[in-house]
Design brief:
The complex is a heterodimer. By secondary structure, chain A is an all-alpha fold. In chain A, 73% of the residues lie in helices and 3% in strands. Classes of the chains: A mainly alpha, B mainly alpha.
Chain lengths: 301, 280
């Protein structure tokens, strides 16, 4: 379908473009530009910031402490993405191959938590994971059961159950982020799997490949764009996550967003916070650039 | 192998194999169990959230009697409604611009419009904090004008989603309909109102639902943009969770969950499950 040149209908073009451009420039590009400028500034007194073009903020961001936090945020986000992929892929498969009657309801089942307030979901998980919560009670019951079976077969019983710390540590952060981001992974995976040509899978099965081999050699390569999309959609918000590490993490589970927040709310070091924000944005751009490079490879070959 | 199978399982009926059912069932339990427990314990007659001590609705009364909480909820709903209306207009208009016209710097503008989706929430929050500080945005306005800053921030991250949804719907529009309308004497505005809008209506409903829930859901950006006196529901719940975990928080959360589920079902009534699923 041919697009119309803007000059042929200037009136309509102005009507549709001016509001959009006005908004995106004034309320997105200008605020971002302010952050960018401040990242080259320094604090002069309590409220005054002098934009002097210094690179000190970026230099400070490369200190060992901040590098480890950046590294850790990447590691946590990558781990969360991997777990979401492993857990979500079979779910997406099940939805794709479900009967017409069930498919919409399964999809709705994945989407409803996605629409539920993030804070409420985090809070619900915190209730469950607390030392008095159900997760601990369940583990305790399992422990008692094992102990009982051991005495039955004549072994020493296990020592008495001590509630484990499931909250306020790195485990809780990863668990919480998986909980929050799982729908982000399942939906694009489903979209990709749904478009697959099923006769290819049937052919592979007919020719003697097992189910696992068919999935690895046929389904995964064909659904690769969807898998990459799912990975990006999970990885990017997980990398910038603030609420989950803040509420569910311990003192050592801070991620980069928590450090940025501290510069604005407590440390009152806006220029440094601005520099960290832009480093995070550059990291996102790098990830997206890697993804779009990957897309072009098949066209070349 | 299959659970409840009446006919033999065909090779591609993965969802009918036992392992798949167990896996999907476990994931659903993982997703829903925390929320179900939260809802159940909002009726628990105990200050602490650990042991069941009988049914009560007193925490709902307490939550409804908490003026700050009610005010926060009203603020959140007002912001979400305003943000949704503006986002729908801006998003639809931007989608039409990108779909219909060829113009200089198009790919750059296209990329910029989808940037607010990609930029981490925390960075957007920081940007609005600095922006409103730099322009000396007044913080002592009367309601509802005191919600202006938050609403502006919400529109910025909501409308690109509307653009995305509307654009994919526009891709299926048959241009000949537009030409036919023009041949029959319709003006640009009439074509837009009577031909284009009815076609993109499902996308507008989906976009409205998306904007409303995104706005209602947002904590991080609001946390940075809200002045000392403007509080929204997530910000209030956040401070309550930080301070202490009480059944009052459960009650307030349950009310919001019910609202979300109700909104979803309204959308389902308007659209059907399939259409909603496809727009995502």
């Amino acid at each position: 379908m041919a697009e119309q040149d803007w000059k042929t209908n200037k009136g309509v073009f102005a009507a549709v473009s001016l509001p959009t451009l006005f908004w995106i420039i004034l309320f997105f590009l200008v605020p971002m530009a302010i952050v960018w400028l401040y990242s080259f500034g320094e604090n002069k007194g309590l409220t005054e910031i002098d934009i002097s073009g210094t690179l000190d903020n970026y230099k400070r961001a490369t200190e060992w402490l901040y590098l480890t936090i950046f590294g850790k945020s990447f590691a946590v986000a990558a781990l969360v993405t991997l777990i979401c992929l492993i857990v979500g892929f079979p779910v997406a498969m099940a939805i794709t191959f479900a009967s017409e009657k069930w498919r919409p309801w399964l999809l709705l089942g994945i989407m409803l938590p996605f629409w539920t307030n993030l804070l409420i979901r985090t809070y619900a998980l915190m209730m469950l994971l607390g030392t008095q919560g159900f997760a601990n009670k369940g583990l305790g019951a399992l422990w008692e059961g094992t102990s009982w079976i051991k005495t039955l077969v004549g072994l020493q019983p296990l020592p008495t159950w001590e509630p484990v710390q499931l909250l306020f540590n790195n485990f809780a952060v990863v668990f919480g982020l998986v909980y929050v981001h799982l729908p982000f992974m399942v939906l694009p995976l489903y979209a990709a799997l749904d478009r697959l040509d099923r006769s290819l899978i049937e052919a592979s099965l007919d020719l003697g490949a097992g189910h696992f081999r068919t999935i690895m050699r046929i389904v995964v390569p064909l659904a690769a764009p969807g898998i990459v999309a799912g990975v990006m959609i999970t990885l990017i918000p997980a990398l910038g996550a603030y609420l989950t590490p803040d509420l569910m993490g311990g003192t050592d589970s801070q991620m980069i967003a928590n450090v940025i927040e501290r510069q604005f709310k407590k440390a009152n070091d806006w220029p440094f916070g601005a520099a960290l924000s832009f480093l995070l944005i550059y990291a996102m751009f790098a990830l997206i650039a890697i993804q779009s490079m990957r897309k072009k490879v098949p066209e070349v070959g | 192998m299959a659970l409840f199978a009446r006919t033999p399982v065909a090779p591609l009926e993965y969802s009918r194999t036992l392992w798949m059912r167990l896996w999907v069932g476990a994931v659903m339990i993982f997703l829903y169990a925390p929320l179900v427990v939260l809802v159940i314990f909002s009726f628990n007659d105990s200050k602490r959230n650990v042991v069941w001590r009988g049914f009560t609705t007193k925490y709902y009364e307490k939550a409804m009697g908490n003026d700050q909480l009610v005010e926060a909820l009203l603020n959140s709903l007002t912001i979400a409604a305003l943000a949704t209306i503006v986002s729908l207009v801006l998003g639809a208009v931007a989608a039409v611009m990108l779909w219909r016209f060829r113009f200089p710097l198009k790919s750059a503008i296209d990329g910029t419009i989808s940037l607010p989706i990609i930029v981490p929430e925390i960075c957007l929050g920081v940007a609005f904090l600095m922006f409103f500080a730099a322009v000396n945005w007044p913080t002592d306005l009367i309601w509802p004008f005191n919600l202006g800053a938050i609403t502006i921030a919400h529109i910025t991250f909501c409308f690109p989603f509307v653009t995305m949804v509307v654009r994919s719907r526009l891709a299926t529009f048959n241009r000949e309909q537009e030409e036919a309308a023009k041949d029959l004497g319709a003006s640009e505005w009439q074509v837009f109102r009577d031909v284009l809008i009815p076609h993109i209506k499902p996308a507008l409903v989906a976009g409205a639902l998306l904007s409303f829930t995104l706005s209602l859901d947002d904590f991080v950006i609001t946390y940075f943009t809200s002045g000392p006196d403007t509080i929204t529901f997530p910000v209030k719940v956040y401070s309550m969770v930080r301070f202490s975990v009480t059944p009052e928080v459960n009650a307030a959360s349950t009310l919001l969950i019910v609202l979300t589920v109700a909104l979803t079902f309204v959308a389902l009534k308007l659209q059907g499950v399939k259409a909603i699923a496809e727009t995502h």
